[in-house]
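Forum: Protein Structure Q&A
Topic: Joint prediction for protein chains with partners

I've read a bunch of threads here and the consensus seems to be that you should model interacting components together rather than docking separate models afterwards. I'd like to see that in practice. Below is the full input, 931 residues plus whatever partners are listed. Could one of the regulars post the assembled result?
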Amino acid sequence: MTHVVHRPHPHDSGPLHVTGTAPYVDDLPTPANALHACFGLAPVGHATIDTLDLSAVWAAPGVVDVVTAADIPGENNAGPVIHDEPLLADGTILFPGQALFCVFAETRLAARKAARLFTLESTELPALTTVDEAVEAHSFLHGPLVFERGDVSKAIEDADYSSSSRLYIGGQEHFYLEGQGSLALPSADGLHIISSTQHPSEIQDLVAEALNISAAEVTVEVRRMGGAFGGKETQAAPLSIIAALGANRTGRAVRFRLDRDDDFVLTGKRHDFRADIRVGFDASGLIKGVDGILASRCGYGHDLSRAINDRAMFHADNAYFYPALELTSLRAKTHTVSNTAFRGFGGPQGMMLAERLVDKVAAAVHRDPLDVRLANLYNETDRSVTPYGMTIEDNVLPQLMPQLAETSDYRARRAAIIDANASAGRSPVRRGIALTPVRFGISFTTSFLNQAGALINIYKDGSILLNHGGTEMGQGLFVKVAQVAAEVLGVGLDDVKISSTRTDKVPNTSATAASSGSDLNGWAAKLAALELRNRLTAFWCAEQGIDGGLTFAQGRVSTEDGQSWPFAEVVRAAYMGRVSLSATGYYRTPKIDWDAKTGQGRPFLYFAYGAAVSEVEIDTLTGANRVIRADILHDVGRSLNPDIDHGQIEGGFVQGMGWLTMEELVYSARGDVLTHAPSTYKIPCASDRPDVLNIDLFDNANAEDTIFKSKAVGEPPLMLAISVHSALAHAVSSFSPRGRWPDLDAPATAEEILRTIATERTQAL
Amino acid sequence: MTQISMTVNGKAVSADVEDRTLLVSFIREHLGLTGTHVGCETSQCGACTVHVDGQAMKSCSMLAVMAQGAEITTIEGLAPSADTLHPVQEAFREHHGLQCGFCTPGMIMSAADMIRRYEGKLDEKTIREQLEGNLCRCTGYHNIVKAIEAAAETMAQSGETQTASA
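Posted by a regular:
Agreed with the consensus. Here's the joint model:
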């Protein structure tokens, strides 16, 4: 029996959050002489820099220093994997809004005003901005990835039916409420950088490389972020590198908080995709072959685009077995901001392809899409091998989906909706409903990243300090890992003191990303706690002459025959007995083995599953739409903390809903992000949430040896919102001829819904 | 520069500020009250919401000089005492109405004002509509709405709905 894990505990920072006393980077007190940084942004798109005159910038009031690419002592780079993303433009402007230089001034306002005073002479170069343009021009970051099985052309030709379609899937701005921010503090011992980042170790490396100093001279710290969602995995780095450079040059602290509009322009977004789909199937809707092309806009540089597009491929089947297949991933290089990680990391876009093709098939064979979904699910016998050669061993969707259909009354509601739409007459209101599943692979697909460290110190009074490499962005990682440490050491959650993530405490960490935070850091903390418990056990048994083991629970250390001592008493005795009370834990994910060259292997330790039923309403005169009700059944294994997990599921669903319905990024022809503020880029607000939202956890211990049998929860719920998009298409399909499923693109904004209705009406004529 | 005086969280403050200084900058940078957050800088997100003479106001949408003589309450001054939370703060903590916490102070200040305006008589739909000016990117709003409902009920029962700020 557990005492601390598998129980609801509120967020550890809750009391601070509600009183405004939880400091974020920009809230920290800084030395009185701290400087403020601001980038000068390119006012043009793809172009060569002929001259850049910064004399007026230098002369502006309050300006202390100005740096360009030539002033960077080491590498001019902010790119995490491939070093193709200059920190400051050097000779060529690669996208509109690229940073040309950086100003350091006495106040934030002085820096921002000065940053506008440059004179640029440039020569415009041809710019590719969309996926269509880049694919047409064969502009790719690197070669395609292709998954193949069987003879797909033959399978589709031999099938009773086939369908071809194209789907555009929009990108997404993270809109973390706390914008990017960093603070660099110089000292005689090196640089101390406090950053709002998911990846302190990477910033440490990039700062060291840019400044030509060793990583040991750079400490990066993060206590909390005001949201991140993938947007602070790599995109936090430029601010920290430049702040470090300024601090190094001037010997003064440097604060850098991006203006929100600059944040929209400068930082990458979720990749937008174009999916080309050809599917062959029989009269029952059983899929025979799938030929799919997933092309994405990566922007000007690599960033994480390789892994993101790989993950889109890993999920282009979502939950379905494709007997024959050819899936191709094209990574378009464009002259736009370099796109980046965003909750789901390409997976959601891949799943959109799968769900669209199943809806197409179901419409063509006149069946309830749920039945076609169920018929095409992976099983554990002859239909269990993924396109990349991994055998699925933990599939719960054949149980989970019917259970949700039952509890949500899906069948009866769908019948009622179809009747109501058919008899709607002149009413402009149409409804739609859809049940879609999620099967999301858990592990970094870049295998070496699947490692983590933790450090636990027990002090003489019995108090416990916990540190690990994971970062807190609101997802509740810190409370979950603290629960693990408290459980193992048999103390209360309040007895474990949580501390900020620091590269000088736990080194060489991976980003808190890929939903892996609690899986990796939870295990690392467990191993550190077990090491300490074993030391205490060995010492105390010897000291007391105890045969057999000790149990650690509820603040006491006990023998099997009922003797018991306070934890703190045993700790103090152990210190007096010269037992080390500090331990590190190190974890690496077992079993994974993925070969990117062959496109085969086991990239994931396990899968997280879930499904959602969404019911929507559209106004066919205005295109306005809303989700009336959503029912979610989601698999988080044995939840470490059901309250935290509920919050992740709900928040992920609503964020996914925003991506697929209202969040529209608009670019100019030369690639400027035109929707660069919340005035033009709309994220869901309180009244956009479904009127009814029922969330249940699916009871299912993880089949793998994960931390207390839990499952990752960060990303998977976002993809539950695909049910909303499918339901909107269902509502629109009330105008379609029988057998046809509308080509509704994403986001399904009011305009997109009206456009699609118009198309379907034409088709019906 | 203009000299301004106002009461912030019950204390008289005065300072010389540039006329263009936003109230939020004055609160954060001059007074060091950093619980009031800057999210979007264009009065969309609501993270900077404070009370000006008892009414919720996005402090990035007014100048500090416009608050001359006003009574300002920020999140730091909402609680009646150092060891007692305001009912809305307590409800947000209790009902997990927060994740990253960045929007939380603004949410709480808006909620407290909303409860005052509606004298605690709030249903879910009204709360959701009234909260449209406060964006949250983490939670999906469910627990925020639940927290406000709970706080409204608590405050209506104890007759605390007359003033938003303690």
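Chain B has five helices and five strands.
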